[in-house]
Amino acid sequence: MESKKFLISEEQKKKLLASISQLMRENTQLSQNIRQINSSYNSKLGEFLLELLEIYDSLESLSEYLSANPDPPAGFLQRLPRNLTSIKNRFLAVLESQGVSECKLEEYQFNPNFCRAIDVIHDKSYPDNKVVKVLKKGYLVKDLVLRPYEVIVNKLNK
């Protein structure tokens, strides 16, 4: 097989070498940027996971106490709903810190952008398209539906 040789002028050679040098500098800068982004991401992920672990520790402690004390004292049982609410609120605060928020249903009207109908009823005592019951709340992260509401909706037409 014949190899072809290309002749280029000294000026073209200088331009090519300058372009290659510039591309190498840009590649180095991009590599540094990627490392910084990864480092920042890993740091934020670590902080997020530590917050989740704090909540897990609370749940684990509660679970271990209940396992060790099958008949807990009345005072413990009275405080249990407040303690669980506190854990739930901490968990929601962690989600909110990551941009997660609850979807808002307009007057409990079925909205296919935010709802998934799990079941449909036909009851004339409710308006058409009325959400009769919320089975699971829906959540957004920024403008993206993370999880739609799961609902039972009323339909007047079968």
Strand order of the largest sheet: 1-4-5
Give me the count of strands: 6
Q: What is the residue-mean pLDDT, rounded to a whole number?
A: 93
Number of domains: 2
**Which overall shape is indicated by the principal axes computed on the Cα atoms?**
elongated
Helix content: 40-55%
- Summarize the biggest pleated sheet: 3 strands, antiparallel
| Count of alpha/pi helices | 2
The low-confidence runs, each spanning 5 or more residues with pLDDT under 50, are none
Rg, nearest Å = 30 Å
- Strand percent estimate: 15-25%
Termini, distance in Å?
77 Å
Order of helices and strands: HHEEEEEE
The computed structural class is alpha+beta
Keywords: Chaperone, Coiled coil
GO molecular function, one term: adenyl-nucleotide exchange factor activity
Protein name: Nucleotide exchange factor GrpE
InterPro entries: GrpE, GrpE_head
